[in-house]
Amino acid sequence: MSDLGNRFGAGQSTVFLALVLFWLAGMVLAPNLMMIDYALRPNLPPAAMGGPDDTYSLANILYLAGEPTHRAIFFKTIWASGLVALVTFLVCYPIAFWMAQRATVGQLSAALLLIIIPFFINEVLRTLAWFIILAYRGPLNSVLMNAGLIEAPIRWQGDGGVLAAMVYAYILFMLLPIYNAIESLEKAQIEAARDLGASTWRIHARVVIPHAKAGIATGFVFTFMLAAGSYVAPSLLGSPGSRWFTEIIYNWFFEGGDWNRGAAYALVLLVLCLTVVLVTLRLARVNLADVAT
User: Fold this and answer.
1) In whole angstroms, how far apart are CA 26 and each of 22, 30, 31, 95, 271?
2) Given 50, 51, 137, 214, which residue has the most CB atoms within 10 angstroms?
3) How far is the C-alpha of 146 from the C-alpha of 122, rounded, in Å?
């Protein structure tokens, strides 16, 4: 606060803080309070609202516990989101290390350009591109058949297609935090480890990854949360056997017309996602302040 006041003066600092608080109250706090209110109240016709039946209870949340299909999809969404974060990390870590420690200025600029340009297109169109690539008569099957690797087209839609699309959709949220963390690592430390006889695996496990753990944790948090809350990729690339929990929430709101149960499902997903994130940060010994910076 004092730094902000010294830089911009008391008047401008007050305006900035007021705008931030207004944004947090209007865009974060109010919607979540409304979601909690809806989740704890029954789905009643307008005439019955405010009547004796309009009381707070955990019935909508407990409904999820008693619905085995929805419960299974819920836990599947959680572990699948963790898998998305893990695969995204495995894809991004070598690229981030090369960009931060090996690439020349020209190579780094070209790599960033090639990675960022596709994200000028919105997520729906990028997911539709994956839908075309993975289609039954799409380019992927054509290439594999022409190469003699498969004899008949394969239906890629399902868990595999959703995983591929999500890894691609959220790659920047993993790549850039890891790149920023590894970039601050002195190359002399890596060279010193190599001179002392450390293998490549040991250098990464004992030097690079511990140094970059804040960036890795940030990437995992962003990617996990985005994957757990994703709707576009599962709805376009999923199959009946690969439903995502967000699709059930959507159905409660817009097809079932039960906003209260939909809000309860969304609240459970939010709480468990936050729990998973906090536990992950605790295990990685990374503070929220490190993630925020």
Assistant:
1) 6, 5, 7, 38, 20
2) 214
3) 32
Task: Please report, for residues 101, 193, 207, the alpha-carbon distance to residue 188 in angstroms, rounded to integers and kept in the order given.
Answer: 11, 9, 11
Q: Half-sphere exposure (CA, 13 Å, Cβ side) for 81?
A: 29
Of 80, 79, 70, 81, the closest CA to residue 264 belongs to 70
The H or E element that residue 176 is part of is: helix 171-183
User: Is the sign of the CA dihedral 79, 82, 87, 90 positive or negative?
Assistant: negative
Query: What percentage of the chain exceeds 90 in pLDDT?
Result: 39
Which pTM does this prediction carry?
Answer: 0.86
Cα distances from 164 to residues 14, 98, 240, 278, in angstroms, run: 45, 22, 17, 26
pLDDT digits (tens, 9 = 90+) for 209-227: 999 988 998 899 999 999 9
Measuring CA to CA, which residue among 291, 114, 96, 267 is closest to residue 175? 96
Q: Under a CB-based contact definition with an 8 Å cutoff, are residues 182 and 208 in contact? A: yes
Instruction: Name the DSSP letter for residue 16.
Output: H
- The whole-angstrom separation of Cα 148 and Cα 90 is 29
Domain 68-292 falls under CATH 1.10.12.10: no
The string of DSSP codes covering 212-233 is THHHHHHHHHHHHHHHHT--HH
pLDDT 10s digits, 80-110: 999 999 999 999 999 999 999 989 999 999 9
